């Protein structure tokens, strides 16, 4: 049996507390940020892009903020809510995470926001479900992308302006919560712009064969097909609408698009007559965006950033901005500083609504251009409109943002 | 409504013929080699990617359709002769694991060579656009696809019923030990069967490119449907695979008219009903 003398016991406790103190000091010397991205699963292609965008923001500050070193780690969400929530919790426990950015999918975001709330960790979500700044809002969660209502309003406004004689639209809607939300807004807003929704077809997520939907829609003779779907679903539908001769005769609206990442996958002929709504496009005319595009292109052999890297960069920039302005790396201080903040970002002017943590910011509407007008091989579209109209207050479901 | 029903029948037929082409290849390999080819989906994807590259290099879609499936046959030959052949006597688990590993490796190779970003390929100029029949408008390429796949399946039918090689393959499906006893080199039969199955997968992939485009995951996306076809058709039934493919295509078309949310579910519903009411499949005997 080991018997310790009084002196030895004293020495043991002194050493123990000293080591504990030095560990705490070490932790205080870093600010720990977690990027939770889909590196595998249905949105695997966007995960790497978001992570690359975030790196540009970190490189701009040399991985240091307010005299502290930034420790940045990433985890794979697999686009699965349960996996992502578990990995975020594990990172908070083992890596002492202060801030979380990402993910991409709305379902995953809703799971992570609960983890952030429980652990009092600040969380900035790229965009999708309006619940983050709506009925699931809380003090620690922020939303970067434009509100869904803002986006749908902008798309319809520009569509009507470009096609004043159009009266009938047909909706293709991906069959999950975010799709239904956007559908609800389009149906509510269509009348405001003199449009009638003549049909709605909901299709499963990950659907690749749209011929049956296209012929059904064509039977209603709409003036345009308005798509509420994303990624490969949207690309497949656009491709097949071109097969059917629907485009370029009639326009198609891609209402919540990744922009560059989706347009790059389409043949120039398939891109004709598209109206594309997106939260980011590389030709945004601000000095900050030009610097971001230049830095990002160095990482990708000249391919400009789309929505995914734009979001990766944007989320990290917002958190860093909050730290810089507050002069602190404490999530609570950063949150207090960001609430109500107004400023200029690489995507344009923004304001953070303190009552629901929605970033009120521009949503961009693009018009694709013919191959003959492309200045380079990535010059797919022009920004034809920018809208920052905030969602009407009575529509927002965040009734109480709560407290720390 | 008539317009809609005719359109959906055409859509279902076009889609079904494509499924049939992939399904026949899979059922052939399963029937003769008694191996569920988990790499069948990536062979389909390889057909598409080879076709894309050849069409980009030569500027001819037709040259791509001719050469791409043959390149997939070469890949199939390598898989069979260097890998699968060594596992014929092994437990099914090893065969499954091997082919599944091959599928993952080939998918990663596709990403390394062609990248994660997808591509689109236009149909040849004379098959671009749609024909207006008055009551329906239908893409020329899809009509040509239906005609071409009917031709290929008819040729397969003649091959199986009118040639000695076809008879050997049919015999192999029924009883491969007996084929061996008759002095036929079973290794060559297996190699040929795997090659033919690969050809059909590669051809379907190449033909599907103007409709579905290309993504690295396209092989994994089509694989479940291939297996559903085999289950509905009955293990090893080639006519069954053709009919099952068409049935799936038609049922997806019908679902779109009445309940669009169920276009994917209907495929698995058909499989479930087959397993419950006719476990041997529509045309299977075992």
Short description:
The complex is a heterodimer of chains A (404) and B (286). Chain A is built from 12 helices and 16 strands. Chain A has helices at 6-28, 44-60, 81-95, 106-119, 148-162, 177-190, 211-218, 231-243, 260-263, 287-299, 307-326, 331-338, and strands at residues 30-37, 64-65, 68-76, 99-102, 122-125, 141-143, 168-174, 196-203, 224-228, 252-257, 274-278, 342-345, 348-352, 359-360, 363-368, 381-387.
Layout: helices, strands, pairs:
The complex is a heterodimer of chains A (404) and B (286).
Chain A: H1 6-28, E1 30-37, H2 44-60, E2 64-65, E3 68-76, H3 81-95, E4 99-102, H4 106-119, E5 122-125, E6 141-143, H5 148-162, E7 168-174, H6 177-190, E8 196-203, H7 211-218, E9 224-228, H8 231-243, E10 252-257, H9 260-263, E11 274-278, H10 287-299, H11 307-326, H12 331-338, E12 342-345, E13 348-352, E14 359-360, E15 363-368, E16 381-387
Parallel strand pairs in A: 1-3, 1-4, 4-5, 5-6, 7-8, 7-9, 9-10, 10-11
Antiparallel strand pairs in A: 2-3, 11-15, 12-13, 13-14, 15-16
Helix pairs in contact in A: 2-10, 2-11, 3-4, 5-6, 11-12
Chain B: H1 2-33, H2 40-58, H3 61-82, H4 92-114, E1 130-132, E2 137-139, H5 140-162, H6 164-174, H7 176-181, H8 186-212, H9 218-233, H10 238-258, H11 265-277
Antiparallel strand pairs in B: 1-2
């Amino acid at each position: 049996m080991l018997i310790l003398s009084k002196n030895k016991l004293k020495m043991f406790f002194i050493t123990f507390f000293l080591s504990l103190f030095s560990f705490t000091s070490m932790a205080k010397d870093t600010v720990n940020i977690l990027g939770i991205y889909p590196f595998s699963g249905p949105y695997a292609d966007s995960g790497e892009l978001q992570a690359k965008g975030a790196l540009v923001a970190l490189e701009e500050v040399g991985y240091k903020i307010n005299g502290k070193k930034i420790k940045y780690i990433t985890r794979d969400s697999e686009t699965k809510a349960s996996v992502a929530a578990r990995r975020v919790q594990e990172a908070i426990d083992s890596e002492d995470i202060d801030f979380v950015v990402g993910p991409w999918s709305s379902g995953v975001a809703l799971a992570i926001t609960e983890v952030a709330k429980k652990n009092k960790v600040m969380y900035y979500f790229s965009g999708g479900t309006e619940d983050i700044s709506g009925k699931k809002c809380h003090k620690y969660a922020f939303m970067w992308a434009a509100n869904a209502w803002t986006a749908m309003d902008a798309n319809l406004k520009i569509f009507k302006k470009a096609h004043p004689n159009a009266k009938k639209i047909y909706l293709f809607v991906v069959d999950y919560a975010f799709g239904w939300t956007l559908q609800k807004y389009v149906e509510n807003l269509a009348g405001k712009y003199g449009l009638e929704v003549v049909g709605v077809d909901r299709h499963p997520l990950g659907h690749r064969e749209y011929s049956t939907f296209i012929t059904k829609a064509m039977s209603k003779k709409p003036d345009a097909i308005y798509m509420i779907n994303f990624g490969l679903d949207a690309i497949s539908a656009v491709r097949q609408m071109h097969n059917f001769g629907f485009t370029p005769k009639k326009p198609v609206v891609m209402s919540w698009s990744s922009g560059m990442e989706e347009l790059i996958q389409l043949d120039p002929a398939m891109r004709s007559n598209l109206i594309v709504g997106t939260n980011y496009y590389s030709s945004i005319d601000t000095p900050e965006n030009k610097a971001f595009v230049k830095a990002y292109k160095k990482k990708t052999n000249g391919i400009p950033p789309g929505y995914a890297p734009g979001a990766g960069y944007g989320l990290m920039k917002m958190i860093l901005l909050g730290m810089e302005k507050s002069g602190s790396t404490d999530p609570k201080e950063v949150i207090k500083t960001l609430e109500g903040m107004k400023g200029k970002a690489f995507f344009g002017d923004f304001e953070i609504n303190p009552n629901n943590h929605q970033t009120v910011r521009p949503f961009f509407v693009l018009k694709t251009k013919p191959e003959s007008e492309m200045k380079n091989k990535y010059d797919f579209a022009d920004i034809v409109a920018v809208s920052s109209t905030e969602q009407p207050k009575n529509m927002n479901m965040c009734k109480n943002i709560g407290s720390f | 409504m008539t317009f809609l029903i005719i359109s959906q029948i055409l859509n279902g037929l076009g889609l079904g013929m494509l499924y049939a082409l992939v399904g026949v290849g899979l059922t052939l390999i399963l029937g003769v080699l008694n191996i569920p080819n988990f790499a069948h989906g990536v062979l389909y994807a390889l057909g598409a990617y080879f076709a894309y590259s050849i069409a980009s290099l030569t500027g001819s879609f037709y040259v791509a359709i001719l050469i791409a499936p043959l390149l997939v046959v070469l890949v199939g030959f390598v898989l069979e002769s260097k890998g699968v052949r060594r596992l014929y006597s092994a437990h099914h688990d090893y065969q499954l694991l091997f082919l599944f590993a091959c599928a993952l490796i080939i998918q990663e190779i596709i990403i390394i060579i062609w990248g994660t970003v997808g591509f689109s390929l236009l149909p040849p100029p004379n098959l671009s656009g749609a024909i207006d029949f008055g009551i329906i408008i239908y893409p020329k390429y899809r009509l040509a696809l239906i005609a071409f796949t009917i031709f290929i399946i008819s040729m397969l039918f003649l091959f199986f019923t009118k040639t000695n090689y076809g008879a050997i393959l049919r015999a192999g499906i029924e009883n491969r030990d007996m084929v061996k006893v008759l002095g036929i080199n079973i290794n060559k039969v297996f190699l040929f069967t795997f090659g033919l199955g690969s050809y059909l997968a590669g051809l379907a992939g190449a033909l599907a490119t103007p409709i579905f485009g290309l993504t690295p995951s396209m092989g994994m996306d089509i694989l479940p449907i291939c297996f559903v076809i085999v289950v509905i058709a009955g293990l090893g039934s080639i006519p069954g695979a053709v009919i099952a493919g068409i049935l799936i295509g038609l049922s997806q078309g019908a679902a779109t008219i009445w309940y669009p949310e169920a276009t994917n579910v209907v495929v698995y519903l058909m499989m479930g009903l087959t397993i419950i009411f006719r476990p041997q499949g529509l045309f299977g005997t075992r």
